[in-house]
Every structure is written in structure tokens, then in C-alpha cells.
Amino acid sequence: MDSNDFHLKQSPYSDPGAVPADLPADPRELGALVRNLLIHREEGGHFGYAMPEERRHEDAEARYVSEILRILRERSQAPLTEHRELGERFAGTCRDFALLMCAFLRATGTPARVRCGFATYFEDGSSPVTHGDHWVTEYRLSDGSWRLADAQVADGAHDVPFDPLDVPRDQFLVAGAAWRACRTGDADPHNFGVPLPTGPLQGLWFVRCNVVRDLAALGGVEVLPWDAWGLAAKDEPEVTADDLALLDAVAAATATEAVSPEEIRRLYADLRLTVPAEITSHTTYLGVRQVRLPESLRG
Length: 299
Prior knowledge:
- The protein has nine helices and eleven strands.
- The chain has 299 residues and is α+β, with helices and mostly antiparallel strands.
- Helix 6 (175-184) runs antiparallel to helix 7, helix 6 crosses helix 8 and helix 7 (204-218) packs across helix 8.
- It is globular and about 55 Å long.
- A hairpin with a 6-residue loop joins strand 7 (192-194) and strand 8 (201-202).
- It has one domain.
- The protein starts with a helix and ends in a 7-residue tail after the last strand.
């Protein structure tokens, strides 16, 4: 399977099932459509919307696009391509914006993949975290090059100094690029993570987790942002020199757009990186729990 076919194929996570016949093929229109279907669960106030707590806690636990679409259809019988009020939208996270955008791109003939990494454009300077945990979509142009797209900020939802369908790679660092910068001393690991009211989660351990999640996503295993296994579940003192060498190899392979399906599969085959039958999900609101995944969802 060549790179084009590999990234056109829906994963068990992204597969939408039946899609609207009038789904647009233009990436910009798809970004606006995703923006119309989803609202970030922490951004209700940004739009003057009182987010119901049960939606804030539960929607983003949906692992599959088919489940997201089921919830959307339960909240409104109107076609997915029609305007939705905020209360009719799915309350997700950046991963859900990225995954739904990826699903629609694949469904309309554009090779796409989900990327896990760190964005600079959500941080206001009040936290030591300058590169916040974030997920976007990467899609392929007809000339073979790849662009980063952020459906969460599409359609004027946020004031960002760039085209959301062409996010500069110094504004969003894929996890491998962040890891390499931290390992060479070009970046401070404590600038990477997620700011929380109780204090930021930050450091090289956080970057390491995203390196593992990004590789899985590249291989079509687009887990939840708080899922952990293998090298993403190890405590920092337990990480060995051999583990670091493996992470360096993953980062080198995934830091740029020139990452091959063959290399993804080769690296992912290492059991320290492969999603196992049981993972630990560090859910934001529902506590830490063990989740068993069917074999089809492990890549």
C-alpha cells in the first residue's frame, strides 16, 4: 500500500459509516463543517454557552467518529451539513476536531492523518507552558506535500495569525519535533504540557507520551488524549537508555511530513509502542480506569 492509499483508508476510529451525499470535498469547507458540528468542551464560555456538565464530562469519551455522529444525530435530525445551534453540537476536545476532520477528508478523497503535538496559539503567557498539548489534522495536497489543519480554530472561531488550513510548523510542533528539540537542548521540556487550574502538567515525560500517541495515530490508532500504555505509561525513573533510543528513532521518523507507512508499521511493532489489549485511561473528569480494547482497535 502506497502512502496515498494508506492515508485514504479509514481507521476503525475514523470510519464514519454512511456520510452525507452532499459532503463537500474542499478542505476549507470541511473545516467549517466540523466547526459547525463540534464545540470544545472547555470553550462554552468563549461562545456564551452554558455547557451542560454531563456533556462536558462524557461526550469526549467517545472513541469513534461513528459514535460522535450517532450523538449528533440524536441531538438534531437536521442534516449534518445544516447549521447547528451550540446545544446541538458534540462537546469534544481537540482530538475530536482532528479525527472528524480526518474522517471527512478521507471520505471525500483527500489523504489525511491525525497528528498529536503542541500548539503555541492557545497560551496567553500566564503559564510557564508555552506549547500546549494539542491535536490537529494533516492532509495531503495534489503536489504530494502535506499541510496541517486545525478545525478547532477554523471558520473564525479563534483569532489566530495564520490560515487554519495551513498551520505553520513553528506554531504547531508534532510530538517528534518537540521531543528532538528537548533532547538537543534547543527547547525547555517544561514549556511543553497542559496548563491546569491546579498547576501545569509539563516536562519531558509529557512530550514522551505524545510521541507514543502520535505514532499510534499515524498508524490509524487514534486513541484518546489521556490514554496511556507502554512507553507512555512508564514513570520517568523507569525509562531506560534503550527506551530513549527507541523514542529518538520514533521522533526522527515522525518529526517531519516525510514519514513512510512502512516506517510507521516497523516502529509500531515494538511492544513498547503497540497499543495492547488493556490501556490506562486517565480521564479528566471520570477518574483513572482500565479500558479493554478489541483487537481491531489496536492497529
